[in-house]
Design goal:
The structure is a homodimer of 343-residue chains.
Chain A lengths: L15 E5 H18 L2 E2 L9 H7 L5 E5 L2 H8 L4 E8 L5 H10 L3 E4 L3 H8 L18 E4 L10 H24 L5 E4 L2 H5 L10 E2 L9 H6 L9 E11 L4 E4 L3 H4 L12 E3 L5 E6 L4 E5 L14 E6 L2 H5 L5 E5 L2 E6 L6
Protein name (chains A, B): Zgc:162816
GO molecular function, one term (chains A, B): D-serine ammonia-lyase activity
């Protein structure tokens, strides 16, 4: 008889960033199916999680067709068998040599240019092995926009209005290019617009959302998802009772959840799961101050050492604070994911 | 003839966290001398930098008598020959076993208790090898306070008033303990109060500041230091011109400088060295938006690829975003420091 080790989430030392792998898979699969149904190529963004395991889930195992926000991510994925990587960042002049090396190594490495000086930088560094940056040194592959203004939306109607407007503008621009003899691709992104796409987005070549694999409290407020779709949490423990301030202290400060979302949520810097009357009011590096939105705290409900679960306001900002993610399925720990960091 | 490699800061890819090792040594030495002159034991805090090299400088090479904010720091230093470590954190119940292991391993490992339940936790885990938590299982070593309210001060006079008040309260409390037969130590900290100590602090057993080794824009506003004393910077490059918004884009977003300091500085999230009319207005994960405080930007002064230097609002918050610190002496790169992370 083999003994089965069933390790619960509550065994983790806190603060701990935990990922529900079933929700990650569901969020990823839904986006894949949404894009298939719409008839547009999905190019998922890696910046939210920066891990190999999550990238494999988002690409359905193909290890092709991704977007990254840093050169560190580009190298991380290129070193692990990924290809067709789009570095969605206006070409940084200090990284031309490394971009050239990736272009020589991969089947396809795409970079963004938004200034003639950047073109000059590429011309100064021709590619080796018969490769080229394309046509007179550079090939324009496509037009890329983010539609970050979807983050000011509330509800599907507003999101779709922005998605429609962005799609229209991009397609008009591509038409203008075509009129002067340049045929190229088009891509827009943002998790809100790709969670509720409009039909015309089928005319785009690609979409490039990223946050959707985790989602967060912000996305649920925008209307991209339900709070139940959010795949990540920060586990924290009560470490102090402060009856003179009607507060609890928890072991998660800004080093564990980030300062993102100040003033955005009625419950402060996070949603405290299962405790809608609690607010994460303020933080130091390693301490959080929690108080009731109304009334007096009943400290017997929150003994020292007891666990609380925080739903991050912005999962990209929270994930970046953690050197390791603890992965679980239905509350059972199943592994660890280690993100890449730096630039 | 040996060739001398002189590697300038400008060779770094950005964003990069850079540390002026001469300023670090000067800030550390000044604090050592200030405490010697006052006649109080310095127990430097490691939470700002979390590196071995900086700890060696702060302890004058003794590798004894430090404070840490996380168990990860405690283990990091204990594994590298450090001893007499104070874990300045109300005993987290999930970490009792690891605290016991450190108490068994080190000559002296000190923890903080602020609740009878915590005492119960220690009793449940007696130490091995003839060691003990002391008297009935636990020895009260001292009373520890932070005087974090010095962070609301402006100027030496206000700082010293808080330092005086905190010292008085702590010493009165120690006297009360003495009256009931308990003799113990006393320690206060905070970089502002220890940068401008009052005479009565000589009656304390210890002081435990930490940020002073780097300082930052916040400390210069409080009056703890001059802006010239700040030992750390984030190097960033101009990656975009946005004349329609009268803005520059830089390659440092909140992943490179943190969101700390929102609304606190007239120049936004950082001081942009040598450019008092520029403001770091807002950020995404990897982009910063810079605009003039008044007037129109002269883009010819900020060509794409040119370097800007950010002085962080809060160096603890900025350092934690960086997996490596680039160390220089007079602009010449001399090494890298790698901080510990996590909990």
């Amino acid at each position: 008889l083999a003994s089965i080790r069933w390790i619960p989430l509550s065994s983790l030392c806190t603060p701990a960033f935990v990922v529900d792998v079933d929700k990650v898979k569901r969020n990823a699969q839904r986006m894949i199916e949404r894009c298939q149904k719409l008839g547009v190529q999905l190019r998922p963004h890696m910046k939210t999680h920066k891990t190999l395991e999550c990238a494999d889930i988002m690409t359905g195992g193909s290890r092709r067709c991704i977007v990254v926000s840093t050169l560190a991510e580009a190298c991380f994925y290129a070193d692990r068998g990924y290809d067709d990587i789009l570095y969605a960042y206006s070409l940084p002049f200090d990284k031309v040599e490394q971009c050239a090396a990736l272009s020589e190594k991969l089947e396809l490495f795409q970079i963004l240019l938004d200034h003639p000086d950047a073109l000059e930088q590429l011309r100064k560094r021709p590619l080796r092995d018969g490769r080229q940056w394309h046509t007179e040194g550079v090939e324009l592959r496509g037009v890329y926009a983010h539609c970050g203004n979807t983050y000011y939306c509330t509800g599907v109607e507003q999101i779709q209005a922005v998605a429609q407007e962005t799609t229209k503008l991009i397609l008009q621009f591509v038409e203008k290019l075509k009129a002067v003899g340049i045929t190229c691709k088009s891509s827009i992104g943002s998790t809100p617009s790709c969670s509720h796409p409009v039909k015309d987005m089928a005319q785009l070549s690609e979409v490039h959302p990223g946050n959707y694999v985790f989602y967060d409290a912000q996305q649920s407020m925008i209307g991209s998802c339900c709070l139940e779709d959010v795949a990540v949490r920060v586990l924290t423990r009560v470490i102090g009772h402060c009856p003179h301030r009607n507060q609890l202290l928890i072991d998660c400060g800004w080093a564990g959840i980030s300062l993102d979302g100040a003033g955005k949520l009625p419950t402060g810097y996070a949603v405290i799961e299962g405790h809608p009357n609690l607010k994460l009011l303020s933080m130091t590096q390693e301490h959080g101050r929690v108080e009731p939105i109304s009334g007096e705290l009943d400290y017997s409900k929150y003994p020292l050492g007891s666990l609380l679960t925080l739903i991050p306001y912005h999962s990209c900002a929270t994930a970046v604070m953690h050197p390791v993610y603890h992965v679980h399925s239905e509350g059972r720990l199943v592994g660890k994911w280690t993100p890449t960091r730096g630039w």
